[in-house]
Amino acid sequence: GIGALAVAVTTIGSQLESLNWMTADGFGAALTSMMAQNIGATERGGDAQRQRVNTIMRTGIRLMTSIGLAIMLLFLFFGRTIFSLFLPGQADAIAMGGMYLLIFSISEPFIAFESAVTACFNAFGKSLPPAINSVAFNLLRIPLGLLLMQPFGAYGIWVGMSLTSLGKGLVIALLLRTHQSRFAQAMGKER
């Protein structure tokens, strides 16, 4: 019911967005490996090794969030230009595509941050909290999209999706904060 143009824009827009989440997933896998290796080595390294785990975690989260911020700025200021490369001469599609990237630009740092923190949880063997967070917000997209589609069409669906991505990033930050002491205990038990 949203039209072929909106479907085409969504297809291209989501592929452009994959620049962020595919990069974040790749860095996330590396972050999980580096952290897990160092968590396993805390028995031999003691406090120095625990400090190294914390440094890797902070650096990884900052790096990945910075990539999300860069992509946010790219989409925010050059969204129409980027879309014009894929749909040259189609003014309506370029305008709609620019709006798609504008709407999703706000959530890009949160998407990268969520991937980084999920990688940290995975390194500690605590994959359930980020999984619940992700599934809950992804399910929320359906009623939110239906609700916002009525007054705003495809733009409402995109706003709903962007808001849930933002929400996942905020909630995972709270989960990280509440689990940090458990992570410290887990590293202490390795001794």
Unreliable sequence segments: none
- Beta content comes to under 5%
Net shape: elongated
SS-derived structural category? mainly alpha
- Amino-to-carboxy terminus distance: 60 Å
**What integer value in Å does the Rg equal?**
19 Å
Helix fraction by DSSP (H/I, runs of at least 4): over 70%
Mean pLDDT, to the nearest integer, reads 91
Element string (H = helix, E = strand):
HHHHHH
Query: Strand count, sense and closure of the main sheet?
Result: none
What is the number of E strands? 0
Number of helices: 6
How would you characterize this protein structure?
The protein is mostly helical. Helices cover 91% and strands 0% of the residues. The protein is built from six helices and no strands. The longest helix has 45 residues, at 42-86. The N and C termini lie far apart (60 Å). The mean pLDDT is 91.
